[in-house]
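In response to reviewer comment 3 from the previous cycle, which asked for concrete evidence that the modeling workflow produces usable outputs, we include below a single protein chain processed end to end. The sequence was submitted unchanged, and the resulting structure tokens are shown without manual editing.
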Amino acid sequence: MTTDTIEAPRSARPASRSSNLEKWGWIYMRASGVVLVVLVFGHLFINLLAAEGGIKAIDFAFVAGKWASPFWQVYDTLLLWLALIHGSNGMRTIVNDYVSKPLVRRVLLGALLVSAVVLLTLGTLVIYTFDPCPAGAPADLLPSICS
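The workflow returned the following structure tokens.
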């Protein structure tokens, strides 16, 4: 009776920092996905069903009224950050799985990182610096909600 040995699989590398990063990325995708489902359906319910007038009520004044409340600023910021990081992490996984050339992979991952940071920064700035009635603006350019 002979005993054959089975070769170790390729993935049986010693645990490294990158494998730990992959584990946390996997956990983040699951946790953010659950939170995003709640936030997205809450967003849809509030904006489409609970708002008086339904979808026709969503206009500049509706958004300006929502963003006047710190609650909705935080809610929309959380939705923006979770969705954008969730999507970027998914794209990172796709790039790592399907791009075999190291230089191309690095360029794509760098572009993904830059675009995510720019969009997060701009989106957050819009939410927190939004002013529907800026001082000194011509009256004919202001919305009807401004007096």
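The first helix runs from residue 17 to 50. We consider this sufficient to address the reviewer's concern, and the full set will be provided in the supplementary archive.
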